[in-house]
Amino acid sequence: MKLTQAQLAKYMDHTMLKPEATAEIIDKTVAEARKYNTASVCINPYWVKRVHEGLAGTDINTCTVIGFPLGATSTASKVFETKQAIEDGADEIDMVINIGELKGGNDQAVEDDIRAVAEATHEKGKLLKVIIENCLLTDEEKTRACKLTVKGGADFVKTSTGFSTSGAKAEDVKLMRQAVGPDFKIKAAGGIHSLAEAYDMIEAGANRLGVSASVKILEEAAEQD
């Protein structure tokens, strides 16, 4: 696989979700995204308004996380967070499923949780990605979570928060692709630190990459252009 730096940049949600990120760090992340023209900048909800304003005049989306990183907040809380984030300028919402209910076999609760956030997101014409946190799931649970994401009306299924025991794995992306079919979108996130790892995820079926090492990877890509 060979993509130009510009093509690869449009796979990337340039990410800064560290709890200790200051306004200065957020602004630096925005500047990097503008320099390389990434798909989005992904930040915690507090920073949405600042990032949205910082990206004015570009086609780079503002992406934020909901129910993050554990997924165990109430559906009502997730919906409220989503509506507030969109009001502040978010274009894309990355929500975490209720992992405990999935593992407990309560598929209806998981689907309802996704659907409520999907409806709040789509009402405003925005995108929803659903984080299933693969490292905590069996292969059967990963497949079930993917199918519930599709049934719940989301736009993407996403591998990981990057805050649990491990991040994206190419074999998981392949399993997810089998579960959702050829057309539904997949985001791989967490632990993607090199150009080779980015290509592995795309070749496995990822349509988007959540990456904090975007600059390093895109500089690697430029050397190969």
TrEMBL record:
The keyword Protease does not apply. Pathway: Carbohydrate degradation; 2-deoxy-D-ribose 1-phosphate degradation; D-glyceraldehyde 3-phosphate and acetaldehyde from 2-deoxy-alpha-D-ribose 1-phosphate: step 2/2. InterPro entries: Aldolase_TIM, DeoC, DeoC/FbaB/LacD_aldolase, DeoC_typeI. It catalyses: 2-deoxy-D-ribose 5-phosphate = D-glyceraldehyde 3-phosphate + acetaldehyde. The keyword Cytoplasm applies. GO terms for molecular function: deoxyribose-phosphate aldolase activity. It is found in: Cytoplasm. SMART domains: DeoC. Gene3D superfamilies: Aldolase class I (3.20.20.70). NCBIfam families: deoC. This is Deoxyribose-phosphate aldolase. It comes from Limosilactobacillus pontis. The lineage of its organism: Bacteria, Bacillati, Bacillota, Bacilli, Lactobacillales.
